[in-house]
Amino acid sequence: KMAPYISAKHYISAKHKGIHITNLTRTARFLSEACDLVFYAASRGKQFLIVGTQKNKAADLVAWAAIKARCHFVNKKWLGGMLTNWSITETKLHKFRDLRIEQRAGRLNRLPKRDAAVVKRQLSRLQRYLGGVKYMTGLPDIVIILDQHEEYKALRECITLGIPTICLIDTNCDPDLADFSIPANDDGRSSIRLILNKLVFA
């Protein structure tokens, strides 16, 4: 692990063979506070977005948690400007929804083969990158980020727009960038699964 940020040292309980160990007491405390926030916001109809695009770590867990919680998610790739250029994203989402309607109605099969192939590739790409936000009609109220380093672009967009964030903070992350930090191992599937499970059923 990299050397921790000064502010992250409060979340470290020990160091073993060069690896910093997270203070689980603090993890439990901050996770509980995050769950309280999620429960409060959800009870008032706030919209959530979960971001985790690491294929081997969290992509499938992100989709599972979001579907359970009926919220939006990005688990393939963060498209730059997804939030800060919302008008462009909204246009893509309208296009995506229109193409899905055309597909369900069987109209794509009536197109010439070459045109149909182009449209199907476009639809496949939109499904891959925007499938988790296809029902999003505006900016999210809260964004849950599972890896500060990997999802830094998403985090910066949230900071720019003033959207509150809940971030998993490993020992090499900067907790000051997040509104609500949960000190935890963001490399382990079991750790990510546990925290998502707690947040989903908050």
From TrEMBL:
Superkingdom assignment: Eukaryota
For this chain's UniProt record, which GO biological process terms are given? translation
What is the species listed in this Swiss-Prot or TrEMBL entry?
Buchnera hispida
Keyword Ribonucleoprotein assigned to the entry: answer is yes
**InterPro entries the UniProt entry points to:** Ribosomal_uS2, Ribosomal_uS2_bac/mit/plastid, Ribosomal_uS2_CS, Ribosomal_uS2_flav_dom_sf
Q: Which UniProt key words apply to this protein?
A: Ribonucleoprotein, Ribosomal protein
Q: What is its main location?
A: plastid
State the family it belongs to: Belongs to the universal ribosomal protein uS2 family.
Name the PANTHER family on file. 30S RIBOSOMAL PROTEIN S2 PROKARYOTIC AND ORGANELLAR, SMALL RIBOSOMAL SUBUNIT PROTEIN US2M
Under NCBIfam families, the record lists:
rpsB_bact (TIGR01011)
Record's keyword annotation contains Ribosomal protein: yes
Q: Name one GO molecular function term.
A: structural constituent of ribosome
* Organism lineage: Eukaryota, Viridiplantae, Streptophyta, Embryophyta, Tracheophyta
- Put simply, this protein is called Small ribosomal subunit protein uS2c
Q: Which HAMAP family match?
A: Ribosomal_uS2_B
> What SUPFAM superfamilies has UniProt attached to this entry?
Ribosomal protein S2
Output the Gene Ontology cellular-component terms.
mitochondrial small ribosomal subunit; plastid
> Which Pfam families does the record cross-reference, listed alphabetically?
Ribosomal_S2
Record CDD domains: RPS2
Q: Where in the cell is it found?
A: Plastid
